[in-house]
Design a protein that fits this description.
single chain, 328 residues, alpha+beta, 60s Ribosomal Protein L30, Chain: A, 2 domains, seven-stranded mixed beta sheet, 25% strand, globular, ThiL-like
């Protein structure tokens, strides 16, 4: 495969943003930042065999998700995604057509947000495929949805439903079986094609104060990151954690709790805000058909995440996520 020929094949034919001064084709990209806006940058790497398996996902799905996980980080900062760069280490086990399809998956998602591909790198490797995506976004200068912004008596909230992606992966790995096809398709799609909560992040960014995290490593892990950063504690009501009807339909046969608390990769948003701001946030989300749920409260009485289970018992939720492929 010729590197320069490949770059020309994945190079975008147009830019959405007029602020891109120099895109792919020079030593570096150049863009003009928006006045009075902060630049927000994140990067994530996906490794074959750790974050995805070639036999379980199409190249388009792999590309789509590689970009989605980064957009989710941008959403958690209350920012809008604008540009992305892709570095890819390519083994001989992947064809040029498959690699082009990975970029097509990213382009499909990027066009939703009018994001521009402005650079990257390609190298060969003797091992597994490695995809590193960098996303650049921007947020108004006053926006700071940082993890350390939680305060005593804040409401703890979460968008969407939790646990679907992890259950979908268990279906793909054939750890569970005899699932109704409609439910199976829903859960698998939630794993392969996560939806970053950019619009919800924008709404939350307009609050006077909020802490925010995206759910990549599991709800328990993200809640612990919030309390660690804010040096406070939380009490979470298990019965209030939102679960899809598809996942709930499996609770008589499978332990869905592990997917909800420790599964990860839902890429919903979890955070806190004041009691006064909560009503405003809930109404704004309702107006835009965004599901958001109160699941607990922040407390200064301890520095742990305590889960009040269905029996009324308090159980400490430790910072633990599940590495699916390494634990299989």
């Amino acid at each position: 495969m010729d590197e320069f020929d490949f770059i020309n094949k994945v190079k975008p034919t147009r830019n959405f943003s007029k602020q891109v001064m120099v895109g792919i084709g020079d030593d570096a990209a150049v863009y003009q930042p928006t006045n009075s806006y902060n630049q927000v940058v994140c990067v994530d790497t996906m490794v074959e065999g750790v974050h995805f398996l070639k036999n379980l996902s199409s190249p388009q799905d792999i590309g789509y998700k590689a970009l989605a996980v980064n957009i989710s980080d941008i959403a958690a900062m209350g920012a809008l995604p604008l540009y992305y760069l892709v570095s890819i280490a390519i083994p001989s086990t992947w064809t040029e057509d498959e690699l082009i399809q990975i970029y097509e998956g990213m382009e499909e998602l990027s066009s939703t947000y009018k994001m521009d591909l402005i650079g990257g790198d390609t190298v060969s490797t003797s091992d597994k495929l490695v995809i590193t995506v960098t996303v650049i976004g921007e947020a108004e200068s006053h926006v700071q949805t940082l993890r350390n912004k939680a305060e005593d008596r804040d409401i703890v909230f979460v968008t969407g439903t939790i646990g679907d992606s992890s259950a979908g992966l268990s279906i793909l790995l054939e750890e569970i079986e005899n699932i109704h096809p409609t439910i199976q398709n829903y859960l698998v799609n939630r794993h392969k094609r996560p939806i970053a909560q950019v619009e919800a992040g924008q709404i939350i960014a307009e609050l006077e104060r909020a802490s925010l995290n995206d759910i990549s490593d599991g709800l328990a892990s993200e809640l612990n990151e919030l309390v660690e950063a804010s040096k406070l504690g939380m009490i979470i009501n298990e019965e209030h954690i939102p679960v899809s009807k598809e996942l709930r339909s499996m609770q008589d046969v499978y332990d869905i709790k592990k997917w909800i608390l420790y599964g990860g990769e839902d890429f919903e948003l979890v955070g806190t805000t004041s009691e006064r701001e909560w009503d405003k946030l809930k109404q704004a989300c309702t107006d835009r058909n965004i599901t958001i749920t109160k699941i607990g409260v922040v407390t200064n009485q301890h520095h742990n995440v305590l889960l009040k289970n269905r029996n009324g018992q308090m159980i400490q939720l430790k910072k633990s996520g599940y590495n699916h492929f390494n634990n299989k």
